[in-house]
Design goal:
Layout lengths: L1 H26 L7 H10 L6 H25 L5 H30 L10 H25 L6
Helix pairs in contact: 1-3, 1-5, 2-3, 3-4, 3-5, 4-5
Length: 151
């Protein structure tokens, strides 16, 4: 039960950290990286009422993915906090590359909101960096709590 709770907390905090980073990138005008509104508007087909569903979907997926990260990190059998963090970064690098590629190549061209239909390299880099932040936070929290799952 302890591992489950720490993994859920890690997912919640890592998703929050990633979301704050993406909000900063968008607010600074570096990229159109408002991932929460982009995800929400896929379901609502409207930008205006996309925040609540976007938050719910983004945080739910982030908490579920925390378990995937925890399983992957556990396979590495980490013994130190640094090894947990490196495991989180390794997995988030792979995850971020896939998401960035899919976002730029597929999602943008089919997105129902025009604002999110253009996803260039700056959007891909922002999402990639956001996933690295997610992995660092996941690895740190799981490492502090020494969470390990056996498969």
């Amino acid at each position: 039960m302890r591992n489950l709770l720490f993994t859920l907390a890690a997912g919640l905090l890592a998703t929050g950290g990633m979301s704050l980073f993406m909000a900063f990138v968008s607010a600074a005008g570096l990229a159109n990286a408002n991932m929460i509104r982009a995800v929400g508007s896929v379901w609502t087909k409207s930008y205006d009422n996309s925040l609540k569903p976007g938050l719910a979907i983004h945080f739910a997926v982030g908490m579920v993915l925390a378990f995937v990260y925890a399983l992957f990190i556990s396979l590495l059998n980490p013994g130190s906090l640094l090894e947990y963090v490196v495991g989180g970064v390794v997995f988030s690098t792979l995850h971020g590359l896939v998401v960035s590629f899919v976002l730029v190549v597929m999602v943008a061209q089919y997105h129902p909101i025009e604002k999110f239909q253009q996803a260039g390299s700056e959007v891909a880099v922002a999402h990639f960096a956001g996933h690295i932040i997610y992995g660092i936070i996941i690895g740190t929290i799981l490492g502090i709590a020494k969470v390990k799952f056996s498969i």
